[in-house]
Amino acid sequence: MMNNxxxxxxxxxxxxxxxxxxxxxxxxxxxxxxQAGGLGIIGAGSMYPAILKEHIxxxxxxxxxxxxxxxxxxYPDIDAHIQTIVDLQVPIxxxxxxxPKTWTAPLQQHGIKVVHVVSSSKFALKAQDAxxxxxxAEGFEAGxxxxxxxxxxxxxxxxxxxxxxxPVIAAGGxxxxxxxxxxxxxxxxxxxxxxxxxxxxxxxxxLAFKQAIIAAKEGDTMLMMKELTPVRLLKNxxxxxxxxxxxxxxxxxxxxxxLGRGRAKKGMYEGHMDEGExxxxxxxxxxxxMKPAADIVKELWHDCQATLRQWANPGWASNTL
Length: 321
Ligand code: NDP
Fold this sequence. Notes:
Elements: H1 5-10, E1 16-18, H2 27-35, E2 40-43, H3 49-62, E3 67-72, H4 78-87, E4 92-96, H5 101-108, E5 113-118, H6 121-129, E6 134-138, E7 144-145, H7 153-163, E8 168-171, H8 177-185, E9 190-193, H9 195-198, H10 207-215, E10 221-224, E11 231-234, H11 237-247, H12 252-259, H13 263-269, H14 293-312
Helix pairs in contact: 2-3, 6-7, 8-14, 11-12
Residues 22, 45-48, 72, 74-77, 96-97, 144-145, 261-265, 279 line the site of NADPH dihydro-nicotinamide-adenine-dinucleotide phosphate.
C-alpha cells in the first residue's frame, strides 16, 4: 500500500502502471495487473471499435478494480473509441501520439481522468496546459512509438519533474524494482512498465514474440523510422530492410511503402518473426523469464521498497538487498 498523488488519483494500491501496448494489452493483462494492485491499461490502438467494447466489457466482468484505456490520438476511427469510452464509463484514459488539447477537456467533462504520454518537457507543459491530470514521461529506451530527440529516461524524468506541477509517471526502460526506485529518486510518483508485461501468459501477443523478448540482449533493439514515425523495435529481417533503406537516405514515402499495412500485427500478434514489426523496449535485455503479471507487480514493488530501504540505511554501500 502506498499513498501519493498518483495512487490517490487512480485509486490504486501500488504505483505501478502497465503500459497500453498494441497487440499485447487486452482485458486479460489489464485485469491481472489491476487485481494485483497496480493499474492495468487496455491498449485500444490495435482494436476496432467493437473489439474495444468487448475488451472493456470483459474487463468489467472480471474485476471492479480501476483500469484505463490507452488511446493513440492518431487512431483512424477516434470518435468511435471516444464514444465507447464514454458510454462504458471508463474511469481513466491515457492519450498518446497527438496533441492533448483536443480530447482532454471533453473526456474530463464525463468525469474521466486524463493522462498524456510525452517525450519532452515541452510536450509535458502542453499536457499540463491542456488540463491533463498527470503526464507519462517516456524516455528513449521505451519500445514502440518514441520521441525523435532521443532523451533518455534518466534525463527526461528530472527535466519534466522540474517543468510541471502535475504528477509525473516515469516510463521507458523500467522493468525491475531497482529501476523503479531510481525513477522515484528522479522525481516520478509512479512507473509505467511495458515490455516486462509482454513476457506474461496474460499478454495477447504471440508466444514466439514473447520468447524473442526473453532471448533479447543489449543492442538488440533500435529506434528506427524517425522520418516517418519513430519506433523502437527488435532486430529481425524487417529491421534489416529498414536499416538498409535508411542508410541510403530513404524518405517518408519509401519508408511508409516498406512498412506497409498491418506489419505490427503480423509480427507481435501473428508471430511472423522475420517479416513482422516487433515493438519492444531496451529493457528486454533484462527480461529473463515469463512470469504471471501479478507476480511481476509483487516483485517490482518488493524490490523497489527493498532498494529504497537499502539506500536509506547505514551500511548502504554494501550493495546487498
Ligand atoms: P497499420 O495502419 O499498419 O495497421 C492497422 C492495424 O490496426 C491493422 O492491423 C488493423 O487490424 C488494426 N486496426 C484496428 N482498428 C482499426 C481501424 N479502425 N482501422 C484500421 N485498422 C485498424 O497501423 P499500426 O499497426 O502500425 O498501428 C495501429 C495503431 O496502433 C495506430 O493507431 C497507432 O498509432 C498505434 N500504435 C501505437 C503504438 C504505441 O507505442 N503506443 C505503437 C504503434 C502503433 P486488421 O489487420 O485486423 O484489419
